[in-house]
Amino acid sequence: MGRDTRYSIEDIDSLCEIYYRDVYQYCLYFTNNKSDAEDLTQETFMKVMKALPTFNHQSKVKTWIISIAKNTAIDHYRRKKIVKFIPDLFLSKEITKEGLPESELYMKEDWQEVVDALTSLKPAYRNVIILRGIQEVSIKETAEILNWKESKVRVDYHRAIQQLQSILSPTERGIYSDAKSK
Amino acid sequence: MQNQNERLITILREHPDREPTTDMKDRLKARLREQAQMNQRKDSLFLTAKIATTALVSAFILFLLFTSSGLDTVKNMLPGGTSSETAPGTPVIPEDEAKDDDDGMEEETTTEKIPAKPFVEGESLINVQNDLELHHVDEKAIRSFLHYLMAAKNGDLDDIQTFGFLADDMDESIAIRDFYEQTVEFESLQILEVQFSRAEPDIFVQLAYGDKLEQKTRAASYIITFTGTDFEVYDTIPSQHEAGAFPLTEKIKEVYESFAENHSPEALLGLEPVEFVTLYYYTEQLRDYETLYELHLQEEKYLPYESKEHFIEEMTSQSDGTTNLSDTIEDELITMYRFFLWENKSDIGVKMIFKNQEHPLIFHVDMEDGVYKSHWLPLQ
What we know:
- The complex is a heterodimer.
- By secondary structure, chain A is mainly α.
- Chain A is built from eight helices and no strands.
- In chain A, α6 packs across α7 (about 150-170).
- The longest helix of chain A is centred in the middle third of the chain and has 29 residues, at about 60-90.
- Chain A starts with 8 loop residues before the first helix and ends with a helix.
- Chain B is an alpha+beta fold.
- Among the domains of chain B are: about 125-240, Nuclear Transport Factor 2, Chain: A, CATH 3.10.450.50; about 250-380, Nuclear Transport Factor 2, Chain: A.
- Chain B is about 50% helix and about 20% strand.
- Chain B has 13 helices and eight strands.
- In chain B, the strands form two sheets. Chain B has a four-stranded antiparallel sheet with strand order 1-2-3-4. In chain B, strands 5-6-7-8 form a four-stranded antiparallel sheet, covered by helices on one side.
- In chain B, α6 packs antiparallel against α7 (about 155-165) and α9 (about 250-260) crosses α10.
- The longest helix of chain B has about 45 residues, at about 20-65.
- The chains are: A mainly alpha, B alpha+beta.
C-alpha cells in the first residue's frame, strides 16, 4: 500500500488475511474468552480501516495494528471493570490455602489454570507476557506497541513472569482460587 | 527458573482456542468489505455534496459581484469594510503606526496577566514565583513553597516547620536552617526544572543555587506535596548530591568492602536509605550477586528464590551486562530522597526522579536486624 489517503477493499482484505491471526490471539489471551476475542478482533479491524488513511508508516504495519488491538482490549477491560465493580462489593473474600506440596505444583498447571492466572495479572503485565512470551514479538516492537522503553519491557517481562509463577505457587493458590471464583 | 518460565509459556500456547476458525476469518472479511463499501458510498455522497456546495457558493459570489448592491454587500463583509469609510475630520493613521498601536494593545493585555506585586522579597524569589506561575503550578502550592523559602532565608524555624513536610523534628529543622544560612546564596536562586502531573500529588521543583562555601553552583530539589488540605515542602537540600550520577562516596565503598567480607549486618549500621540504594547499585555494578543477595530481606516469607545459588544462577543467566536496577536506571538521575508512604511511616522508600522518565521510581527498603535491607523486586 502506498501513502495514499484512500484504500481499496483489496487492501483491507489483505491486511485481514495477514494479521487477523495475530490480533485474534492477542485478544484471546487478553480476555481469555473466545467470543470476546472475536468481537475485539472485529472492532480492531474496523478501527484499522478507519485509521488507515492516516497511517504514516513510521512503524511496521503489524506493530501499528497490534497497538490498536491493545487499545481496544484495554477499553474493553475498563468497560468490564466498571460493570464488575458493583457486584464485587458484595462478594465475600474467603481465602482458602490448600498448601499443596512442591511436587504437586505442576499437577494442576494445565492451560486453563495458567491462562486464568494470566488474566488475573494487571493489564500491563498481561500485555508483556502475551507479546514477548506467547507471540514472541521482539523487545523493540513490544516497546513500540506498549509505548514503553526497551529496558522496561525487559524488566517488566521478568517481573510479570515471576508474578505469574507466584500466583500459581502453592502458598498463593488460595488467593488465586478466590480470585477465580469471582 | 528459566525452564519453569519456558514451561509456563508452552502451557499457555496449549490454549485450545488459540487458532481462529476459517469461519471467523470469513465473517470478519465479509463484515469489513461491507463496511468498506458503506464508507465508499458515504465518501462519494460527501464528494457530490461538496461539489454542489462549491458550485452554489461560486454562483452566489458571481451574482453579488455583478450587481451594484451586491458589491456593497461584499465590501461590508470584508474585514474593516465599514470602518474604511472614515468620518470627516478623523486623522488618517499610516499603516505602520496603526500596526504599532495594535502591538501596544497586545503588550497591555500581556502585562495584565502578570501579578502586579509578588508577595516575596528579593529579585530571585520574585523570579522563582514568576517561573512557577508560567509553569501553571497551583497558586497555593507556589505560596507554600515561597513561604518556605522565605522562612529558610530568614532562619524562621517556626515557618520552616509550618511549611516544611516532615519538619516536625526540631533537629531536622535546625539542620535545614543552618544549611541555608551557611551555604545557600539566596540571590542566586533560579528554577531549573518543574515537573508534575495530574495523577500525582507531588510537584517536583529543582532550583540552582550558589554554594557560599565552595563557590560553585549546585542543584537543590524540592517536592511540594499536597497533604489533603494544604501544600507542604519536602526539602532534600541537606542530602543533595551531584546531579547525573549516583552519589558514590568513599563511605559507600568502605561499607561495601566490609559487608562483602562476611555479610554481617553490622557493616550496614547507620546507612541511610539513600546510601543503601547507592550501595545496592554499586554491588550490582560489580556483579557481586552473592553480596547482592545478602542485601535483600532474608525473612523467609519474602524469599522468592529457593536458595542463594538459585538467585546467583538466575542473575548470571539473565545478565547481559545489565541487572534489574541497572537496567531500569539508564536515564540521568536528577535526585533521590527518602520517602515515606502516606499511611505507614515505617514503610520507607527512596524516590528517584530521572530526567526523561515521566514517573519517578520508588525503591522499597525495610528494617531487618536494625539495618536497612532491600525488598525483593524493590523497584516499583
